[in-house]
Design brief:
Chain lengths: 146, 123
Amino acid sequence: MLILDGEPFTSGRSRFFDQHPRFPEPGAKVFAQVKFAGLGGTWIAQVDTGAAYSILEVDVATALGLLGLKEPRTRLSTRLGTLTGQLIRHPVTLVADVGESLEVEAPFFVSPEWRGGTFLGYTGLLDRLRIALDSPANLFYFGPEA
Amino acid sequence: MSAPARLRHSADPPDAEQQIRSLLEEGQIWEAQELLKSAGDRVPAGSKIREVLSPARVRKSPVKGVDRSAEFHWLKTKAAEYPGKWVALVGEDLVASSDTLKELLARLSELRLEREPLVHHLI
């Protein structure tokens, strides 16, 4: 894994997908492989340090039984407008092809109004991790904070 | 004797947990997290608001991933043929597709796959 000043910097690595067919805007993005506690299969979530918070795709939130719970209500300003929803806490696993995967139990915004995909945002999730990209090779490195 | 009680109550500052909930309802999530950090035991350890807003917990996972290059290649080259569908891929094989995630998951539960599929929504 990556070493910084002689110490391990990250613990896992996975190949990421950079050309999501679902979003027509040009430009590569980082779509990492994740697993959700309570659902089988591997899923794709956009790693977005520009997104303040993490969001679950509405169908995924529904499948996990996370919509309509008695959770704190909030609003979130998104590229699709300001949405009303709830903050829930749920484990998501960053899946490593090489090295160790990481489970992160983090707050997610869920809303029946959200029409986008799942985002791993900065506050409360990415800000607890060490991350690095090898963009030409489409490799995403991650690890727990020291 | 209830009137004086109401007066006293209305003069009290809102408790920390209520303040945090109010901030959340206004969409001020970061401010709510900051207030929680400074609230100490004024917000009980077992409260829902503390549970939701506490820093993420990170731990190593035994989950082992596989190289998904083949699935990514399918998404790049075939996704346009399945607009709006939920798809499940194993390598370059489309093992299930459906208009709804619920139906896709039901189909997957009936299949015996050699490895877990990559599940994705194509819009």
